Amino acid sequence: MPRLIAKSPLAGSWPVTHGGVSLSELVLEGITSVAVLPGGQNAVDKALKPLGVAFPAPGRFTEKAELRLVWTGRDQAFLLNGALACEGAALTDQSDGWACLRLEGAAAADVLARLYPLDLRAAAFPPGHAARAALGHMSSVLMRVEGGFEILVFRSMARSAWTELEHAMQHLAARAGA
Amino acid sequence: MRLTCPLCGERDRREFYYYGSDDYLRRPAEGAPAAAWDDYLHNRDNPAGETRDLWYHEAGCGQWLAVTRNTVTHAVLAVDLVAPVAQKRGRK
């Protein structure tokens, strides 16, 4: 059987840097929605134990090495780069539905401040924090990691998100005279 | 105006969709008299003071919220999740 080559959502968009902030695509090894069923929390906690991550509190993510579990809603989280089998939750494969963008650099929070109505300064939104919020008018999952941010957007909006972010980076760099 | 979503924290009003009075949470039982349905669907108070209405956190966690606020002072007094209450009422 022929082996098909998967195309990443932003294939063809090469990393860009403006004013010391870099934007690139992050290709994830699978996204699974973990929606806890009523009364299923104990079973989910038990199934997560061998993975080494706990179910995240609202607005947080937990991780171990490459594997990450990020809060995305009430009784719901996305498992990134991992697999889970559990009766206590409705598990759905979301891998092809989302694109992941990575923004790095000292002024990354200033770039996002132009697009997110959130306080993203390190004191208010340190690594390990996550938010469901709109990037411009797009639904997104925003995560603060060491050295930058990672943003999940619907795959269909990947290029719009990329363009919006790059514009914000350019505007900020122009202001700084960089 | 800002609403403090119990899950997402303090967010701008524009992230939310306004639905209407929390009367919508008290749907009459099957076979209720016409007057009860009339009240449920059409008759609304317009208080100068405390009121409670439903908002949807559209740009955030996607939860329905019951917001208690004062229409005179514009103070937002409480924001509660609707889902746990609805579940308790038997829609399991």
Automatic annotation (TrEMBL), chain A:
<dbReference type="Pfam" id="PF01571">
    <property type="entry name" value="GCV_T"/>
</dbReference>
<protein>
    <submittedName>
        <fullName>Sarcosine oxidase subunit gamma</fullName>
    </submittedName>
</protein>
<feature type="domain" description="GCVT N-terminal">
    <location>
        <begin position="88"/>
        <end position="172"/>
    </location>
</feature>
<dbReference type="InterPro" id="IPR027266">
    <property type="entry name" value="TrmE/GcvT-like"/>
</dbReference>
<dbReference type="InterPro" id="IPR006222">
    <property type="entry name" value="GCVT_N"/>
</dbReference>
Automatic annotation (TrEMBL), chain B:
<dbReference type="GO" id="GO:0046653">
    <property type="term" value="P:tetrahydrofolate metabolic process"/>
</dbReference>
<protein>
    <submittedName>
        <fullName>Sarcosine oxidase subunit delta</fullName>
    </submittedName>
</protein>
<dbReference type="GO" id="GO:0008115">
    <property type="term" value="F:sarcosine oxidase activity"/>
</dbReference>
<dbReference type="InterPro" id="IPR006279">
    <property type="entry name" value="SoxD"/>
</dbReference>
<dbReference type="Pfam" id="PF04267">
    <property type="entry name" value="SoxD"/>
</dbReference>
<dbReference type="InterPro" id="IPR038561">
    <property type="entry name" value="SoxD_sf"/>
</dbReference>
